[in-house]
């Protein structure tokens, strides 16, 4: 737990100096700040996920990220497998993240028809479009588990969410 809070602080403070965004739960594949515009996972190599998978509940779990842009159209996708190259399952409809701070979904429920079973590996991809159209990418690698515990205590209590659906803006 001590280790987790230190890494959390590191991610948050890094994000304030370099803009972009960090995914703190499930823990992101790695620091992508220098290459975050690289599809599909911000330029962070998949091999890192071999030692960096978060256990996530089989029916879905929490997502926590720290944006630093005032607003960004945001997409959350899932790809099934050990070494994912296509993250083509939408698990959160596109939304406009507004305001900075820690942004959370306490539980993203996975579609039932995916046939997910305990022990499957997958990757979650978060995409943010900045005001000038740049796309920023991050991935977090997970193993779906029946007994996965949630995010470390305290992470969800600091969430500041402001969402406007695209459909209401248009
Ligand atoms: Cu940025």
TrEMBL record:
GO cellular component: plasma membrane; side of membrane
Subcellular location: Cell membrane
Pfam families for the chain: BIM1-like_dom
Keywords: Cell membrane, Glycoprotein, GPI-anchor, Lipoprotein, Membrane, Signal
Membrane association type: Lipid-anchor; GPI-anchor
Domain named Copper acquisition factor BIM1-like: residues: 18-161
Main location: membrane
Signal peptide: 1-19
Top-level taxon of the source organism: Eukaryota
Protein name, per record: Copper acquisition factor BIM1-like domain-containing protein
């Amino acid at each position: 737990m001590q280790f987790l809070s230190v890494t959390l602080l590191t991610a948050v403070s890094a994000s304030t100096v370099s803009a972009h965004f960090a995914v703190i739960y499930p823990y992101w594949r790695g620091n992508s700040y220098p290459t975050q515009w690289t599809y599909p996972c911000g330029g962070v190599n998949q091999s890192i996920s071999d030692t960096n998978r978060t256990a996530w509940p089989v029916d879905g779990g929490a997502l926590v990220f720290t944006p630093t842009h005032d607003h960004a159209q945001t997409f959350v996708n899932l790809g099934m497998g050990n070494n994912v190259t296509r993250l083509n399952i939408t698990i959160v409809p596109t939304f406009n993240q507004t305001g900075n701070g820690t942004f959370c979904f306490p539980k993203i429920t996975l579609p039932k028809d995916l046939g997910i079973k305990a022990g499957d590996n997958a990757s979650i991809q978060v995409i943010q479009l900045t005001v000038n159209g740049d796309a920023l990418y991050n991935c977090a690698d997970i193993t779906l588990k029946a007994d996965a515990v949630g995010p470390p205590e305290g992470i969800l209590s600091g969430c500041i969410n402001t969402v406007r659906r695209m459909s209401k803006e248009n």
